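Dear support,

We are seeing what looks like truncated structure output for some complexes. This example has two components. We would appreciate it if you could run it in full and send us the complete token output so we can diff it against ours.
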Amino acid sequence: DVKVTQSSRYLVKRTGEKVFLECVQDMDHENMFWYRQDPGLGLRLIYFSYDVKMKEKGDIPEGYSVSREKKERFSLILESASTNQTSMYLCASSLSGGGPQETQYFGPGTRLLVL
Amino acid sequence: GEDVEQSLFLSVREGDSSVINCTYTDSSSTYLYWYKQEPGAGLQLLTYIFSNMDMKQDQRLTVLLNKKDKHLSLRIADTQTGDSAIYFCAEARRGGYNKLIFGAGTRLAVHP
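Here is the complete output from our reference environment:
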């Protein structure tokens, strides 16, 4: 079974704080993704990574950065948290190579509240 | 446009069939997915269908794909209270990797 874990289920931070969200997968997947989920908007891609130390911007990268120092770990960083970053953050991973093996598997999510 | 569209809410009686509909936009999409999200949880993959198929059945789940109309549906037979969740459809678009575009999700409420 694919397992994707996220470091926190719930986080409360203050405006201006630096926030780290961690994601770890145990299936040796090449690709890892960070999404945010907001009611009525579905999931929107923030950043993804297709290899160690590689990253690509998604659809809404502003205000976020990422780090992938090891294959199994992908971190999302909010340099200076703002209230409009209050959201549910979901991490996912997948193999490469095209086709159904690129199916994405999701972690349980981190609900972040920025006050 | 870019959007994958789903109705936001569906209410069904326990034991009835549920049909959740989705329209997508890119005719070159390779795979279409259904994910389930239970309250407070991440997304769980339910099933997927390759774009050259019309139908896929997996136990109580039936996926129908009308490629001409870019319409995808998920039918859940004998709906149970444990099926109450948000259901997301997603299309995998061709590119450097299979970029997933998600709909806003359909909240399924199952009542006795």
